[in-house]
Design a protein that fits this description.
Pfam families: DUF4192. The structure is a single chain. With about 550 residues, the chain is α+β, with helices and mostly antiparallel strands. The chain is about 35% helix and about 10% strand. The strands form three sheets. The chain has a seven-stranded mixed β-sheet, with helices on both faces. The protein has a two-stranded antiparallel ribbon with strand order 8-11. It has a two-stranded antiparallel sheet with strand order 9-10. A hairpin with a 2-residue loop joins strand 5 (about 150-155) and strand 6.
């Protein structure tokens, strides 16, 4: 049972929306609810799903001769009745203050308590047991000077009013709730294209791990074997970066596989088909690979347009594969599912997925931040903008750090220079680049007077071919390698480039940065301890292979 605040509607973010732009708020402005039965039928449309074991408050606002619905908030009913007062206070205070923060004063409330009877129980017994909770909701709202206009109990297909004692309209045995889809509001919702999901339990089933089948044992075995295979690679110098790249390559392939398979309308059929599209070994590799924060952030970029729907199906499928002792490993995939749902305008699934992520790992920061943002009614566009900028920066950093493409017009692997590979960039940028350091710098070639001959004419520096260079995450930096270019002739081992212009002016040369540029601020002729000793491997003068040294061991300035 969950016990958390869920504020929906009138929050600046679309809730329970449709492709045509309709929402429950716009629908209810066109439909007049005039009876207790109308209010009971309206609850699933107000929330977008059928609540279970829940207490709900719906805000009312003055609007001329009629009131209008405002924000909605839900909490799971605590199992311990001693916690009811604190929960009622939290629910009322959160909705009132949240509405005030959005500039809309609450003038009234409608309260609901919902719980299905236990096996052999009755709805009336549930109504009597929850009567003290309904009274606490009324008193806590009253403390905030907000009256509760109506308080209802929904249980066992019937409803009761706690505010009316007239047996003629509110009998003790309650009144039967209308059949789903038969009310005036249901007809208006169908016409507007609004859909009401099943219960919260039915939504959670799509995200919960498998249970009690032979497939669970097979998946857990695959997770064990994959974890054992990954551990030795993660302790290697470049192993973590290699695992990250392989994870994203696999995720891109599976993502394309899901995009090629249209989703099915029935949730159960859709999930069964999605499970068939993913092998145990692929699921294990993705689950374990997504534990890396950077890999998870790259996967979060599939958040809009045609990428969002197959990504959401993939994250759901991975969440269902976190079986047995790997339950806490579901936090990244559940968070990604919540993020994509929120980005697509589905606040209901976003809340459930993020709450389940926090249940799997209460300290998972990304889930905590997103859950808070959804509850505050923030616009996901700010997060989308950050992820778009990160993707653009990474793709730009993956382009070769030289002017123009290679002579044959292709980059490594036969793809166009700078083109992402399998939907992802070929190389990860240096860690320091995130602080704003440019992907490349232009440095002037000086080396204790080197660069000009005695007569002032340009000198020449012999540059050996670039040595193998690893990026900050272990991947090869595009445009660098340990041998001459593939299209060079036999025996091509070095090239001679002029340093200095025709008039003796230094000629700038572009040098790729390895991490943050190291600058010698001591002035010409003064040794810099950081640049005094070359590292292994050859490279362009001042490039990564020599760490700022020109040929002959002389120090370069400007790096």
């Amino acid at each position: 049972m969950t016990n958390r605040d869920e504020t929906t509607g009138s929050s600046g973010n679309v809730t329970n929306g449709t492709p045509g732009g309709g929402t429950a708020d716009s629908l209810l402005q066109q439909v007049t609810l005039s009876s207790t039965g109308d209010l009971a039928d309206a609850l699933p449309y107000l929330l977008g799903y059928r609540p279970e074991d829940s207490m709900v408050l719906v805000a009312l606002h003055d609007s001329g001769d009629h009131g209008r619905f405002g924000g909605r908030a839900r909490l799971g009913i605590p199992a311990d009745s001693s916690e009811w007062q604190a929960a009622a206070r939290q629910l009322a205070l959160g909705l009132v203050t949240g509405s005030a923060r959005r500039g809309s004063a609450v003038t009234g409330m409608v309260a609901y308590v919902c719980e299905e009877p236990a096996s052999g129980g009755t709805g009336r017994a549930v109504m009597e047991r929850l009567r003290p909770l309904a009274q606490l909701l009324r008193t806590e709202c009253g403390k905030l000077d907000v009256p509760v206009i109506e308080a209802l109990c929904l249980s066992g297909g019937r409803y009761w009013s706690y505010c009316c004692s007239d047996e003629t309209c509110c009998p003790a045995e309650g009144r039967p709730a209308g059949l789903p889809g038969t009310s005036v509001l249901a007809a208006a919702a169908a016409y507007a294209g609004l859909r009401v999901r099943g219960s919260l339990g039915e939504m959670r089933v799509r995200l919960r791990p498998w249970e009690g089948t032979a497939a669970v044992a097979a998946q857990e075995t695959a997770l064990d074997e994959t974890a054992a295979a990954l551990l030795p690679r993660l302790v290697e110098a470049d192993g973590r970066a290699s695992v990250a790249e392989r994870t994203m390559e696999l995720a891109a392939r599976v993502h394309r596989r899901y995009a090629a398979e249209p989703s099915r309308p029935d949730p159960l059929d859709a999930d069964l088909r999605d499970d068939e599209l993913l092998t145990d070994e692929e699921a294990a590799a993705l689950i374990l690979g997504l534990q890396d924060r950077t890999t998870r952030d790259r996967a979060a970029e599939w958040m809009e347009g045609g990428e969002a729907e197959p990504a959401l199906r993939l994250w759901r499928a991975l969440s269902r594969r976190c079986v047995g002792s790997y339950g806490e490993h579901a936090a990244p995939s559940l968070t990604l599912a919540g993020w994509v749902a929120w980005s697509a305008g589905d606040d209901v699934e976003a809340r459930e997925a993020l709450a389940m992520a926090l249940a799997a790992d209460p300290g998972y920061l990304f889930a905590r931040l997103l859950h808070r943002a959804v509850e505050e009614g923030l616009d996901p566009e700010s997060v989308r903008g950050c992820l778009r900028a990160e993707r653009a920066r990474r793709v730009a950093a993956a382009r070769p750090a030289v002017d123009g493409p290679p002579p044959d017009g292709s980059g490594p692997g036969g793809t166009s220079a700078g083109e992402p590979l399998d939907g992802m960039s070929r190389a990860e940028p240096p860690e320091e680049a995130s602080s704003g350091a440019p992907a490349e710098v232009r440095a002037t070639a000086h080396a204790d007077g080197a660069g000009t001959r005695d007569d002032g004419s340009p000198a020449a520096v012999t540059v050996p071919p670039p040595g193998p260079v690893r990026g900050a995450r272990g991947g090869p930096v595009p445009g660098e390698g340990g041998a001459a270019p593939a299209n060079a002739g036999p025996g091509a081992t070095a090239e001679t480039v002029p340093v200095g212009g025709a008039a003796g002016r230094p000629e700038p040369c572009r040098v790729p940065v390895r991490g943050r540029p190291r600058v010698n601020r001591r002035g010409p002729g003064r040794a810099d301890a950081r640049l005094s000793r070359p590292r292994g491997g050859g490279g362009p003068a001042g490039g990564p292979g020599t760490q700022g040294r020109a040929r002959g061991g002389r120090r370069r300035e400007g790096m």
